[in-house]
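Chapter review: from sequence to fold.
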Amino acid sequence: MSTNNFTPITPAQLYNGLIDNPGKEIKARSALVRENKVSENNYMNMFANMVLIYGKRDAKDYARILGVNVKHFDGAIRCMSGMTAHHWINKYLCLVACDLIEHTDFTFKTIGKILGFSQSSFSQFFRSQQKMQPWEYRNLKRYGRARGFFYD
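The token string follows.
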């Protein structure tokens, strides 16, 4: 039995980052971030574009949008990326969140809305992914150190 040697398609390979000058009046996710890079795999490209458009949703919602069985969908994503669809979605949204926190002055509540989170769940999500609070991450990226909350 032979094994295929291929490079897993990770979220970092498909996420292109923020546009050069996002402005303050942007309302739609698609206007805020660039389109995904092409991975030469139409299925992963469609999935990444859906995550970019719809944000935080369950893997079965994405499977329903694509019109496939949830088990087949998760198996295909696992085969192409080496991680489950849920894990891939979380990694992708974490990349977008880090980019928004670092390069914009949006409040964390606004960033959570952009990514499809409820008001309180964005901070919990970010802390679970990055092991720090969103404000700590912003301070670290802007000032080069984790500043205290009440002092400079």
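Two observations follow directly from the output. The chain has nine helices and no strands. The mean pLDDT is 82.
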